[in-house]
Amino acid sequence: MADTKTPTPDEARAFVAKAETDLATLSEYLNKASWVRATFITDDTMWLEAKANGEWTEKTTALAEQASRFDKVPLDPVTRRKLDILKRNLVLPAPSRPGAARELAELSTKLDSTYSTGAFPYQGKTLTLSDAEDILAASRDPAETRAVWEGWHSISPVMKPDYARLVALANEGSKSLGYTDTGALWRSGYDMPADDFAVETDRLWGQVVPFYKNLHCYVRGRLNARYGDAVQPRTGPIRADLLGNMWAQSWGNIYDLVAPKDEVSGYSLDKLLVDHGYDPTKMVKTGEAFYTSLGLPPLPDTFWKRSQIVRPEGRDVVCHASAWDLDDRDDIRIKMCTKVNGEDFYTVHHELGHNFYQRAYRDQPYLFKNGANDGFHEAIGDFIGLSALTPTYLNQIGLLDKVPGDEGDIPFLLKMALDKIAFLPFGLLVDRWRWEVFAGQATPDRYNDAWWTLRLKYQGLVPPGPRPADAFDPGAKYHIPGNTPYTRYFLAAIYQFQFQRAACKQAGWTGPLHRCSTYGQAEVGKRFAAMLAMGQSKPWPDELEAFTGERKTDASAVVEYFTPLNDWLTEQNKGQSCGW
Residue 293: phi, psi to the nearest 5? Predict the structure, then answer.
């Protein structure tokens, strides 16, 4: 006798349709609660967001479990894809038992707010992360950089018990959905088996690691020349606080220490912006103009009325830059504490990439309103940002009177590499650490040791001194307490160059890849917009192919972009013992 309980294809489609309607309503409520908490942190707004998060987690976890009922039902590709997305829709799935979703939501909100309100005493003042970052960027006193680095990292030990509890709850929820742990759930979102994805990231890292080691070797030598063997030895790893960034994920702030010795005086983007009267709003307007130059529609009026472009006075906010889509339609915003400098000029172009992507796929069904994968969402703005930092673009928009000749290539590429190439190993290791944590390989008593083992392995870095027994240094990076998967940024660091190579070819550019600006290229914009409009409706190789003509992620575009610099670094490093 046939099993009458076996669901039908029509039941599956009806289930998906109702799920999309319910989630669309609930997500707008959650987004608005999250926005209020992020832009006005109080006990009350934290409570509101935790409540909304708990309801969202309960709903999405239940839907994920129910979606599994249709695993063996023969379905059309669209319904099957939507069911697969439903099953992995949560970053942190909660156990289905009563109270678990609320506990997970409260832990998540508490961790995020603990980080965002973090501060520490230094020389009679209380420093925020923003203050500490400014000191690390500018100071050339290793005693000061160490003190400030250690000061910020002192805010995170209090998070460790909550983080360990959150991991346990999320793993329990992931197992109920059929995953071995939460790391396996995260790795399943790339249209390939979870284990294959880990191998794929290893392959991509292998394409770029020789260049990273070349850059590491050169920078270490210049730091040694500046500080001496007692501070930065000539061989081995680099001291993490000497690289101008709290997590040593970008090294551009120490360009003055590593600039070519024979560099002809160049230009400072920071100075150009100030000299041309830029303010935060003008920076965002300039970023918008890049996207509209490609033929994309301008941002809605509500963007300008509702975004947080500068840090408000008199209240605690989350300053970490982010882009928001509150209603999956037109209410798109950015949240920044924008400063008038080159770093935030780039960040504006990056964050707006999320908003223009969100706008492009707004006509897709709810479950397809997302990037082809999370790396795509990050890569869109990074791809535009590659052009935004070129002297070609700065000249096009009137910031730079004249594009430097070939003599400016090495300084420009070195500045880019200090951010783009230096970032790659960090982009990879953050989730490698979490994969170990979720898998139980790194237990709470080993959280910090496991973190520094990976930072040494991939980045070739060590802390400025011994770490306290209770240290929880991963918690000093926003994306850990904020529970934001990080491999997306590593992928984006590859995709952006792949997009750039394809776009410049489409534009008929015949010069060096690093000099190409796609500003104003309407024909490129048509193919670009077509890819964006697909949202998450197709497997990412299909969407990659739609814009680039390629179906495989390929870091050779990174190597091509930086080839002149890599050759120059090889020459500079002659006689050095590279590696660590």
Answer: -65, -20
Tell me what the pLDDT averaged over the chain comes to. Answer: 94
- pLDDT tens-digit map of 482-520: 999 999 999 999 999 999 999 999 999 999 999 999 999
**Predicted local distance difference test score (pLDDT) of residue 1:** 39
Q: Which phi and psi angles does 469 have, rounded to 5°?
A: -60, -30
C-alpha span between 442 and 205 (Å, rounded): 22
Side-chain half-sphere exposure of 491, counting CA atoms within 13 A: 25
Question: What does the pLDDT average to over 547-558?
Answer: 95
Residue 308 three-state SS = strand
Q: Please name every residue paired with 122 in a beta bridge, in sequence order, or none if there are none.
A: 125
Which of the 8 DSSP states describes residue 1? -
Of 26, 52, 156, 158, which Cα lies nearest the Cα of 104? Answer: 52
Coil/strand/helix, residue 334: strand
How far is the first Cα of the chain from the last one, in angstroms, to the nearest whole number?
67
Alpha carbons within 13 angstroms on the beta-carbon side of residue 552 total 7
Percent of the chain clearing pLDDT 70 (strictly above): 99
pLDDT, one tens digit per residue, over 251-294 is: 999 999 999 987 766 788 999 999 999 999 999 999 999 999 99
Distance CA 245, CA 426 (A): 12
| Exposure string for 439-473, b = 16+ CB within 10 A, e = fewer | eeebeeeebbebbbebbbebbbbbbbeebeeebbb
Structure tokens at 276: 């041309």
Q: What is the pTM of this model?
A: 0.90
Interior/surface letters 478-514, b for 16+ CB within 10 angstroms, e for the rest: bbbbebbbbbbbbbbbbbbbbbbbbbbebbebeeebb
Q: Token pair 């680099």 is at which residue?
A: 238
Q: 446, 540, 388, 426: which is closest to 167 by C-alpha?
A: 446
Q: Give the model's confidence band at 404: pLDDT under 50 very low, under 70 low, under 90 confident, else very high.
A: confident
Concatenating the DSSP letter of every residue in 392-427 gives HHHHHTTS-SS---GGGHHHHHHHHHHHHHHHHHHH
- Please state, in angstroms and rounded to a whole number, the distance separating the CA atoms of residues 376 and 382: 10
